[in-house]
Specification:
263 residues, mainly alpha, four-stranded antiparallel β-sheet, 46% helix, binds iron/sulfur cluster
């Protein structure tokens, strides 16, 4: 048995997630027609993301699907080699000493980077949002306007899809009992591996890796990224949801973190 399981209700939420991604795909396609579009430098993929477990589960689900499609098209040996290489890359990042859990920065490329994103069709929303509905960092080499910034989408249609996305995380959390096992923001390699590896393999990994890669933030409302802050649900709603779960907002206006170990 794998460490975490995908349940029948999750498939409905995965479908909702993909529909929300579709709306961002439209923004992205239109944005790429402008002079501020992505130029595929891969510099923003030098990162160790922390995302909500919903998206980790969806990535693992789609990886399994891809595995069987490869088996059908290319044979078992090729499918096994593909899956093993992906698991190896994810496992390798669990040993990343350069990863900063607060900044999500690292000296290494993302575990899914291999001359391009290997999960492009089912990559998380934070990757889709970058430069399409948010600003970019100085290291991004795309073109800037006369003010040294880029132009990106904003407004009600963007807010609608980001808030829809947040409510999908909430629904996934509720469908899985609103407990820290499934409603948690985690280091992406850990979250995805927990749906792919057996319990004993995760325990072995836990013994061999640093504590920082196992720490998570409880609660979908704690998924605070540049795009959720810009376009997401109002603070009052987020605060109420946090309070319902026994969390409070601290003096800096950030939700109090609850740390947990995802074994
Ligand atoms: S998931 Fe893909 S797009 Fe996102 S950081 Fe990793 S390689 Fe880049």
């Amino acid at each position: 048995m794998t460490n975490r399981e995908i349940h029948p209700n999750d498939l409905v939420n995965f479908n909702r997630l993909d529909m929300a991604y579709n709306k961002i795909r439209v923004f992205q396609a239109k944005h790429n027609e402008t002079e501020f579009g992505c130029i595929d430098s891969g510099k923003c993929c030098k990162v160790g993301l922390k995302i909500h477990l919903t998206e980790c589960a969806y990535i693992a689900f789609r990886m399994r699907q891809e595995y069987y499609l490869r088996m059908e098209n290319e044979g078992q040996e090729s499918a096994d080699a593909w899956m093993n290489s992906r698991i190896e890359a994810l496992t390798d990042r669990m040993y990343d000493k350069s990863w900063d859990e607060n900044e999500q920065s690292t000296d290494l490329q993302c575990a899914f980077w291999d001359n391009g994103c290997t999960i492009y069709g089912y990559r998380p929303l934070v990757c889709r949002a970058y430069g399409t509905i948010t600003e970019v960092d100085d290291f991004c080499p795309r073109k800037r306007n006369e003010y040294g910034t880029i132009e990106h989408f904003a407004g009600k249609s963007v807010e609608d899809v980001i808030q829809e996305f947040q409510l999908i995380l909430k629904r996934y959390a509720e469908d899985n009992g609103s407990n820290v096992d499934y409603d948690v923001i985690v280091y992406m390699p850990l979250g995805v591996l927990s749906f792919l590896l057996e319990d004993f393999q995760m325990q072995e990994l836990h013994q061999q890796t640093e504590e920082k890669v196992w720490l998570g933030d409880e609660g979908w409302f704690n998924y605070q990224s540049r795009f959720t802050r810009l376009h997401g649900l109002k603070d009052e709603f987020i605060e109420t949801e946090a309070k319902l779960r026994g969390l409070v907002v601290n003096s800096e206006g950030n939700l109090q973190r609850e740390e947990c170990i995802n074994e």
